[in-house]
Amino acid sequence: MRMRLISRSVSSEDPLSSTWLRLLTCLSATLCAFPSTGFDTPLSDTAVRQAYFMGQRHDESLAKFLDKYCKHLPPPKTGPYIASVSFFTPYALLAELSNERLYGYSAQQAEIEHRGMVETVRITVEIQLTDTYGPVIPNPDGRSSGTPWDYVMRPTDFWRDFQIQVISDKKVLSPFSYTGEPDYVCGDGGCSLVGATVQLEFLAEAFDPGSATIQIEPPEGDQVVVDFDLASLR
Which pTM does this prediction carry? Predict the structure, then answer.
């Protein structure tokens, strides 16, 4: 049995035509409200526009959205505290960039700028000092005089003692950027070292779309392993 497609010309006054137009409009709005999920690179023009509008909301919705890209970890019994690990995809980074642009920044500008960008992934590791891995350490010269001089402040670049590996598709990836900054809490009595934030940047195309694993080997305490299901991240 053969099927035949029948075309039907309708005018703008045809009630059936108006009904179909309303249905198509609602369908388009629904698709935009619920974008497809899953790690994707390179981003399509549609994804770029969606990331742009996500960032342009300038409200708490962006923070809630980006929190999906972050794993918050429990504190250890001893050693430094790996408080969180985040995995920002090209889509998340683009939404974050759009949020930083407050006025006069259009979707067209976002698309043009994106065409000149190399898509990347940013992994951030937040380290906090603890009672067993604090801001004060024994003087490395080994002398003991029974005075406060037996102790010195922990170096601000202590984060370099942490070995961080990123694995995707059973391969260890090499970042093109590996940086860290000390974190302080400041008050009337001055500032105190409380931790550090380490950032690693990779080419997005280096990742398999299935999963990624971040392994962190602290100088003291247990290894920390964090897995990200990239199929659940935009």
Answer: 0.82
